[in-house]
Amino acid sequence: MDHHTALFDLLGDLARRRYQLAERYFSKIGLNHTEARLLTLLSQEGGTATQDRLSGLLFVDRSNAGRALKRLERDRYVIRKKDDSDKRTNLVEIDARGRDAIGEISKLKTEIVKNFLGNLSDQNAATIVNMLEKAT
User: Fold this and answer.
1) Burial of 114 per CB tally in 10 Å (0-12, 13-18, 19+)
2) C-alpha closest to that of 105 among 36, 44, 42
3) pLDDT value of position 65
4) Residues 72-117: tens digit of each pLDDT
5) Is the pLDDT of residue 25 over 80?
6) How many CB atoms lie within 10 A of CB 33?
7) Given strand 48-50, what is the order of strands in its sheet?
8) What region, left, alpha or beta, does residue 131 occupy, with left being phi > 0 and alpha being psi -120 to 50 degrees?
9) Hey, which bits of the chain come out as E strands?
10) Which domains are seen in the chain, by residue range?
11) Distance of CA 20 to CAs 59, 81, 131, Å?
């Protein structure tokens, strides 16, 4: 196997492992990986974004994002409403419970990173980041 194929396969394995680890950690606060990412992205967007924007940032289709948003809305993490200027567009707004969850999500993400990357030094991490950025 050539190095490019090995790297490609390794990235896929790492992505699956990261997803599984995040699922396990975020379940501690009653969220799944996608829901935690949606809340984080919504917070980074200033607390309000369109459903289409969030889908794009997640790199998932509208229906996948819609299912996760439906659960977040049901559990009062977010509020969804029609955009007054375009009734075809759904606006998503983070609610008080969602804002409170952001701190917990951030703490869990720190734990996930420590668990996932183990004893990788900052210097080695920086080298890997620089190399991967060149590939994108």
Assistant:
1) exposed
2) 36
3) 87
4) 999 999 999 987 787 778 899 999 999 999 999 999 999 999 999 9
5) yes
6) 19
7) 48-50, 86-94, 78-83
8) alpha
9) 48-50, 78-83, 86-94
10) 3-135 (1.10.10.10)
11) 18, 32, 25
